[in-house]
Specification:
Elements lengths: L13 H5 L19 E5 L3 E7 L8 E6 L2 E4 L2 H7 L1 E6 L4 E7 L6 E3 L3 E11 L5 E11 L6 E5 L3 E7 L12 H12 L6 E5 L6 E4 H6 L2 E5 L3 E7 L6 E5 L2 E14 L2 E12 L4 E2 L3 E7 L13 E9 L2 E2 L2 H7 L2 E4 L3 E7 L6 E7 L2 E17 L5 E11 L3 E2 L3 E4 L7 E10 L2 E8 L2 E4 H6 L3 E6 L4 E9 L6 E6 L2 E14 L4 E14 L7 E5 L2 E7 L7 E5 L2 E2 L2 H7 L2 E4 L3 E7 L6 E3 L5 E12 L5 E12 L3 E4 L4 E7 L12 E2 L9 E2 L3 E7 L6 E4 L3 E10 L16 E11 L6 H4 L9 E10 L40 H4 L1
Parallel strand pairs: 10-27
Antiparallel strand pairs: 1-2, 2-6, 3-4, 3-8, 5-6, 7-8, 8-9, 10-11, 11-15, 12-13, 12-17, 14-15, 16-17, 17-18, 19-20, 20-24, 21-22, 21-26, 23-24, 25-26, 26-27, 26-28, 29-30, 30-34, 31-32, 31-36, 33-34, 35-36, 36-37, 38-39, 39-43, 40-41, 40-45, 42-43, 44-45, 45-46, 47-48, 48-51, 49-53, 50-51, ...
Length: about 775
């Protein structure tokens, strides 16, 4: 390069680039101050600003501010004026890098630089607000020549006090420029753009600015900047690497002197690559387009770093950075996820993905034969493609343990298991642990983990299905919910496992009749846990047995259930004064589907003594010995309230009545919960065979009989007069009393104030009735 004399008049060029855009009016006051995280740092060759993208999703906008106004930092204007604006949506931020020689930047002696920006944020309602960012950076002296290769522009600056080249070192194309400059009669600043193999073009700095070439003068340097891909630029291969080169010569004729500055910028066009482990970038070992004249450049230093700062050698080693200097090229590489870059994980199509972004900073110091140093700076954003990490599951179940064990692998270190869904039932990991499920996290490698879950075959959420006789299929479908921390972005994995188990048969009871009831017995089998034993719709438990009066014996080998006659669950049929049949049924119910899969029923004949049966069909059947309370009474001369309703059978002491609840003068009373049906056995013409007093026909002896039903089970009976009940009623017999004829009135039934407690048939001691199902208290009150 060659320098002549630089006049103070060059300072007029400071306004050339900055005057290219209209200034804006004074900024309005902000409506509010957004709470947006921001980072502002002075780097070696630029100011770095990073602003998080707000929840509204609107990208922050920047305006550069100086004494002349505010200037939006658009893509094109930023490249022209030394601003690099990068939107990183996956990282959730926007970065701005501003060259120390950018437009609108205050410059004091090329040592202290002052920046001011307005940052605009648009809220979700489309309303703009902003805040100001100002920063002053003090930097060490720049090298005599600095070439900067940014993402969107090339910039070269040279000191204006460098010595002129000797005649022998002047390059041919520079000599041609000198001839043009010497022959020019124009005293304004001129720019000659030279493209290899084409004729040079000379123009004013103003015209050059309109073409995208910007020249400015600082207190001690001349700066030239342009975007990539200009028509005066050329691309050439240098040691196997594509390099973009642009050459500009600035000259000014004043009296007998010509001032000339040769400005050359050259940047590697290598975009970088990723081999699965490292990000790599190449550049020529010596950027020969920067050579001026026949002199040679030698490389004295190569360094690497990130975010605009070169790190020292030890730090580079610690981070795994590598610089390989070969004879013709230099390769810089940074390992995946190394310190200094940004690793981002995200979900794409329900698969965990990650990428790694790094702002590679490369610096090389070149020295020519005169000892003049050229510092070559490169900032190159490199990123890996999205790298998927699909999770996988392995069925590790062993039938001997009768436990499903599922392994979920390839889980990155920034992911945690939030919940599992077992056959549609979602359970958080914490709740699962409290419920006794085993969920273990184990290490797979340096940065991945696995989860192992264990679920017993007999778990409440496992689906059990009969495949064939004696063969049962267990199925478990798991939906794993995984969250990426800290953004709590969820993704899912689905596992389905099954197991076939032989010899799974619903339990069947052996049964036998006894004098006082029915006895059931079964031996315990291996797969009994698959079924519940039920009486009707109620599961057989020790509590239920105690409440109903069953006798339950359950040891390690055998279950025995003795069901006394007249306890809950019997069905009575073919009732006569001599005998009746009682049937009791035990059901085997699938614990998962609640379907009844096997029945063990026993029908036995019993001798009739006394009973009162209230059926679901609305029939009350009573057998009672009337002579226990009215000696010498004639059973054949009894009736119900409707005297046409006479006994179906009698013997010397007992009567048998069987009648519908809507017949024979039966009365009823209903409240919000229960219906009471009541009739009376009336004794007529009672007499004695001995010498004691004979009772006349006008005297009446009455025995009250009652059936009580829950109202919801018989509610339709009052519409169609057809009795229907879901469950048998409760029967009571009230001992007869003598009532004088003059006080005989229709019976006033008491209001029900408690719930009854017994489904079933007869008893003379209502307090003996136990709580069963919906019934919650003894019915002593209603037996009175």
């Amino acid at each position: 390069m060659a320098f002549g004399f630089v006049s103070g008049g060059l300072l007029l060029l400071c306004a050339v680039a900055c005057a290219l855009r209209d200034s804006k009016n004074a900024l309005q006051q902000p409506s509010r101050l957004p709470q947006v995280p921001i980072v502002v740092e002075c780097k070696a060759h630029s100011l770095f600003i990073s602003v998080d993208i707000p929840p509204s999703g609107s990208e922050p906008r920047f305006e550069a501010i100086d004494a002349t106004g505010a200037y939006p930092v658009t893509e094109s204007y930023g490249a022209q004026c030394g601003y690099t604006y990068s939107v990183l949506p996956l990282l959730g931020r926007v970065d701005l890098r501003a060259s120390y020689f950018s437009c609108h930047t205050g410059n004091r002696k090329d040592e202290v630089f002052t920046f001011m920006f307005a940052v605009f944020i648009m809220d979700k309602h489309g309303k703009d607000s902003f805040f100001n960012v100002s920063k002053t950076c003090s930097v060490p002296p720049f090298s005599p020549r600095v070439v900067t290769c940014e993402e969107n522009y090339m910039e070269v600056s040279v000191r204006t006090d460098l010595p002129c080249p000797t005649a022998g070192s002047i390059k041919e194309d520079f000599s041609a420029a000198l001839a043009v400059a010497q022959s020019s009669a124009v005293e304004a600043w001129q720019v000659m753009l030279q493209r290899e193999g084409q004729q040079s073009e000379v123009m004013s700095t103003e015209n050059a600015a309109t073409l995208g070439y910007f020249i400015m003068v600082t207190p001690g340097r001349l700066v030239f900047r342009t975007t990539f891909g200009q028509r005066h630029a050329s691309v050439k291969m240098v040691n196997g690497v594509a390099v973009e080169v642009i050459r500009a010569t600035v000259f000014f004729r004043q009296n007998w002197m010509v001032v000339m500055v040769d400005l050359v910028a050259a940047c590697s066009l290598d975009k970088g690559s990723f081999d699965g482990y490292r990000l790599r970038w190449r550049t020529p070992a010596v950027m020969t387009p920067l050579v001026v004249g026949p002199s040679e450049l030698r490389s004295e230093y190569v360094g690497i770093g990130v975010d605009g700062e070169v790190v020292d050698e030890q730090a580079a080693i610690d981070r795994g950075y590598s610089v390989t200097v070969a004879e013709e090229t230099v390769e810089s590489s940074i390992p995946f996820a190394a310190e200094g870059g940004t690793r981002k994980s995200f979900v794409m199509e329900n698969v965990y993905n990650e990428l790694y972004i790094v702002q590679l900073t490369y610096q090389q110091m070149l020295v020519d034969q005169h000892g003049v140093v050229t510092k070559h700076n490169v900032v190159r954003q490199m990123a890996t493609p999205p790298i998927p990490h699909p999770s996988f599951s392995v069925n590790q179940t062993t039938l001997e343990e009768r436990v499903f064990q599922v392994y979920l692998g390839n889980i990155p270190s920034d992911v945690e298991l939030v919940s599992v869904e077992l056959n549609g039932q979602a359970i958080s990991v914490l709740t699962a642990a409290q419920m006794g499920y085993s969920i273990t996290r184990v290490s797979e490698g340096k940065n991945t983990f696995a989860y192992i879950i264990r679920v017993p075959f007999d778990d409440q959420f496992v689906v059990k299905q009969y495949i064939s006789v004696g063969v049962l299929k267990y199925t478990l479908e798991i939906k794993w919910t995984l969250n990426i921390i800290p953004q709590m972005e969820a993704y899912y994995h689905f596992s389905s496992v099954s197991a076939l188990v032989a010899d799974a048969i619903p339990p069947v009871f052996d049964s036998m009749c006894t004098d006082n009831g029915i006895s059931f017995m079964k031996d315990h089998q291996q797969y009994d846990y698959l079924w519940d034993i039920a009486i009707g719709s109620y599961t057989l438990t020790p509590q239920l047995a105690s409440e109903r009066g069953y006798i339950l014996t359950n040891d390690s080998t055998t279950l025995i259930l003795a069901v006394p006659l007249f306890t809950i669950g019997y069905v009575y049929e073919d009732i006569t004064l001599q005998q009746f049949y009682g049937t009791f049924e035990i059901l085997s119910r699938n614990v998962k589907t609640l379907e009844f899969e096997k029945s063990s029923a026993k029908r036995c004949r019993f001798q009739t003594a006394e009973l009162l049966v209230c059926t679901t069909e609305g029939v009350m059947t009573v057998v009672t010995d009337i002579t226990k309370v009215v000696p010498y009474a004639d059973p054949a001369r009894t009736t119900l309230l409707d005297r046409s309703c006479r006994p179906q059978e009698t013997d010397e002491t007992r009567v048998l009545f069987s009648f519908g609840l809507n017949t024979c003068g039966t009365r009823f009373q209903i409240d919000q919960q229960y219906v009471i049906y009541e009739n009376e056995i009336i004794f007529h013409d009672l007499y004695s065979t001995d010498s004691r007093q004979v009772i006349t026909r006008d005297a009446a002896y009455r025995m009250t009989i009652r059936c009580i039903y829950p109202v919801h089970s018989v509610e339709s009976s009052f519409v169609d007069r057809k009795f229907r009940a879901e469950t048998p009623g409760i029967g009571f017999i009230k001992d007869p009393v003598t009532v004088p004829p003059q006080v005989l009135k229709p019976m006033q039934l008491q209001k029900l104030t408690v719930k009854p407690s017994f489904w079933g048939s007869v008893a003379r001691k209502p307090a003996d009735y136990a709580r069963v199902g919906q019934w919650s208290a003894p019915l002593d009150k209603y037996a009175q």
